[in-house]
Specification:
With 306 residues, this protein is α/β, with parallel strands linked by helices. Helix content is 40%, strand content 19%. The chain has helices at 9-21, 46-55, 73-81, 91-105, 110-120, 149-155, 179-185, 196-204, 209-215, 236-242, 249-256, 273-278, 293-304; strands at 2-6, 27-31, 37-39, 42-44, 126-129, 136-141, 146-148, 162-168, 188-191, 220-223, 226-227, 230-231, 262-266, 282-286. Bound molecules: ligand FO1. The site of ligand FO1 has 17 residues, from helix 2 and helix 6.
């Protein structure tokens, strides 16, 4: 069995590769929920949906979120009502949020609902939210404003200076059923190439996860989300800089050095190998840019077989 700690798109691409080279039923994805939001009374879980849609073959790769062949009739109608439309929910995507919200209102846990949604989409990989409890990533801007993650990321287009990131609810949260066992029992634990500060940190903020991962350090491996000093998607490099970390793969390796024994560097950053090794990490250098499923499969093979 293999376990992958996940944010959204980068993690989902890695999972496509992993499930091509290993039995999907032997892979567990432990997914960030700090991006979750409630809008129109609906519970939206962007990272869980990105992972589930991608593995289900229905992810909208052009948009980077939501479903393929999407239509926007509900959003259009909401616009004419003067409702909030800054966060765009497609008609097909809405079905997921309706289903999730309805089941949560009936008392189902988020992990149970996630399992049902994955099953309905014929996804065999185990997808588990890191916690069933409320955990919300909150960003403090340089102006002292507190923003929910989606206000920061979508409404402000992550174009504001950030001075702090908190995970509201994390101290009181517990890992969802199966999460700690998935880390303890895995042949390899992979930290996906996701944003370390807003995708992986909230996962590690759930009490017990960081310790469980550190126990597995020898078999744990992280893939850089930063290549040549830039994130492939999103504000990772900028956030690293703003929060006092080096905005490079080495800066990310430094954040993970107590938790993983091996760090995967992109071949474009091969010259950083000795810096990574100087942190006490084994270093694998390969192509980490998963521009198609074949490349994702090759990366997964290099990582799971490392
Ligand atoms: N991102 C946007 O930039 N604009 C949107 O309108 C938007 C809508 C949306 C709806 C459902 C969903 O699951 C994700 C959505 N996202 C949108 C993406 C999402 O906010 C972020 O990409 C992730 O939270 C970052 O991991």
């Amino acid at each position: 069995v293999f376990t992958v700690l996940c944010g959204g798109v980068g993690a989902a691409r890695f999972l496509v590769g992993a499930t091509a080279v290993r039995d999907p039923a032997q892979i567990t994805a432990v997914v960030n929920v700090g991006d979750d939001t409630v809008l129109h009374g609906l519970h939206i879980s962007p990272d869980l949906d990105t992972v589930t849609y991608t593995l289900g073959g229905v992810h909208n790769d052009e948009l980077g979120w939501g479903m393929t062949s999407e239509t926007w009739r509900v959003m259009d109608e909401l616009t004419s009502l003067g409702g909030p439309t800054w966060f765009r929910l497609g008609d097909r995507d809405l079905a997921t949020h309706l289903y999730r919200t309805g089941r949560l209102a009936e008392g189902a846990t988020l992990s149970a609902v996630t399992r049902e949604l994955a099953h309905a989409r014929k996804v065999r990989t185990h997808i588990i939210p890191v916690t069933d409890d409320r955990l919300a990533t909150i960003v403090t801007t340089a102006e002292g404003e507190l923003l929910s993650f989606q206000e920061y990321f979508v409404a402000r287009r992550h174009d504001v200076a950030v001075v702090a990131i908190e995970f509201e609810g994390a101290p009181r949260s517990s890992p969802a059923p199966g999460v700690l066992a998935a880390i303890a029992d895995a042949e390899r634990v992979v930290v996906a190439p996701s944003n370390p500060l807003v995708s992986i940190d909230p996962v590690l903020a759930v009490p017990g996860i960081r310790e469980a991962l550190a126990e597995r350090r020898a078999d744990a491996i992280a893939i850089t989300p930063i290549v040549a000093g830039a994130a492939l998607k999103g504000p990772a490099a900028r956030l690293l800089r703003e929060l006092g970390h080096e905005p490079t793969a080495v800066g990310v390796a430094r954040l993970y050095r107590e938790l993983v024994g091996t760090f995967v560097l992109d071949e474009r950053d091969a010259q950083l190998r000795s810096d990574v090794e100087a942190l006490g990490l084994r270093c694998v250098v390969t192509d980490t840019v998963m521009s198609d499923p074949q490349r994702a499969g090759a990366l997964a093979e290099a990582v799971l077989g490392a």
